[in-house]
Amino acid sequence: MPRAFTPKVITANALLEGDVVYLTKDDLWTRDLSEAELLTDEAHADIRLLDAEKRGNEVVGVYLADMTAGPDGPEPTHFREDFRRTGPSNYFHGKQEVRG
Amino acid sequence: MYHYNDFDRDFLANRNAQFRAQVNRRIDGSLTEDEFKPLRLMNGLYLQLHAYMLRVAIPYGTLSSAQMRQLAMIGDRWDRGYGHFTTRQNIQYNWPKLKDVPDMLDALAEVGMHAIQTSGNTIRNVTADHFAGAAADEIADPRPVAELIRQWSTDHPEFQFLPRKFKIAVTGSPNDRAVTKAHDIGLRMVRNDAGEGGYEVIVGGGLGRTPMIGKVIRDFLPREDLLPYLEAIVSVYNLLGRRDNKYKARIKITVHENGIDTIRDKVEAKFAELKPLFSGVDQQMLREIEGHFAAPEFRTASTEAFDDAYAADPVFRAWCDTNLSDHRADGYAIVSVSLKKHGATPGDATGDQMRTLADLAEAFGHDELRISHEQNVILPHVHKSDLPALHRALKAAELATANIGLISDIIACPGMDYCALATARSIPVAQEIAERFEELKLEHEIGPLKIKISGCINACGHHHVGHIGILGLDRAGVENYQITLGGNHTEDAVIGERAGPGFAYDEVTDAIERIIRAYLDVRESPEEEFLDTFRRVGTEPFKAALYPKETVDA
Ligand code: SF4
User: Fold this and answer.
1) What is the pTM of this model?
2) Secondary-structure breakdown of chain A: helix, strand, coil percentages, each rounded to the nearest 5
3) What average pLDDT does this structure show over B162-190?
């Protein structure tokens, strides 16, 4: 039995701002995880990653991050990704601040 | 204070112009990240979890008021209005934008500061005793030598691509406040039988994945032999150090694998070769540098105002009892300003706080500030008669927390709140422990105790040498914290012992409280400090408190 594929999103840090971004279906970089494209097929995810990696003039450190499907879009399965989509826990800085 | 000469200024201006061009070429697409990354790292620019991070060296932890003000300005203008002081006497800005970094570096250069070699496999910022030039127990101020090492190692062509990063710490006192035994090279000033000052040279210390206490390679090195001897050590390491495995590349492993005696023989042989090549220019430079570090003109004045305030004001008294250390000049004190207000992020200072500290150093402290590896700010030279006024001003800036050396004076690395390498958070753990013991009103009763927290095995938070060390790990996708006991960071350095299985994020503070209650129970008297109790009774009572069920089962 092949192992079940954990759904993923493509994520990176923006080149200029350094903040966390995710790839949408329309090939745009969004700051909001809920707008990211959830990749549920492994082969498709690999191709999307290869394409995203070519965009080194927009982003840095592209990778696939594990997610699950939530009611409002992708949800992190690991606490590291949860911090990345939120911001630090000692100050209300980063994404949480922008979201209000 | 060392003041840059024309050579230093030109060097830095050129370097900054070069980096500005590199940033521009990255932004316009002519450099790829693979090409740019080593360049930005050489200039202290990291990419962390949420943003870029600029790490600025504070050589041997010394700052003037003007430099501190500039650090505040940089934080306010290009960051989020604060800076984070680290265990290696650096300041980190957590939110810079790529295009602003060249301006930040130019602003640093205006006050003789830079971010060069705060990353990469080079000789990093040379750290020193934060009480240098002030401590009552000091043989000689270690900073001139630290500055000499900085000049020698900056852009040293042979040492830009070492097997791994390389850290040097210097102390001018037999009492080690610079954690020299946990550095690649530690230098501790000692006297020989003839009463001359020289260096005990320690090599191969380091925390991280394979913690090692440094070993003495030379028990007495005459001062004038320092640079050729250091060069000999680094070049032996440069050849012998393993480049095949990142985790085995530090000199601690080289020393461990080859044995200290083999390393010593090779170093001595290399030293014999190098020594004649050092024509004495280094000693000339050192003498010149020493002039920059002349002690301020200490004044003689009555300490009556201090004595009166000490007798009359219990808050002032409590602060004096914890935050002052003995100064070598009569009537003076060394003031440690705590950046560990209960519930605050250890080592963070806002722009306003930095400016207040700069003003106070100017008014009361001969214009000098220090950053300690324990993430506090030191005013090294304050006359006691000025302490009441200083304390009032610190209080107004929320900088008068009386907790130096106590349980809430915690070292914590940035952990997963910022650091891309982290396996768990450290800051909120420190915050919660500090708040808990503040609530319990126990910290003064507990007495001297050092808790040190790292958010991963790299051990930037020095957890191995904390009396109580906490290491945050990722266990199957959940934060888990391992506790070590009995570590010590001084000249008697010891790596702490693992207490047992780790604790979940929301169990750590309770676990620490159980350790402390056990200590209060078993200590012979309030005078027996935690570490002494631990040495006397070992881990058992603490394990019993941490893992009650297992003890019953056993
Ligand atoms: S110990 Fe780990 S988590 Fe903490 S600052 Fe160092 S590398 Fe980052």
Assistant:
1) 0.95
2) 30, 30, 40
3) 93
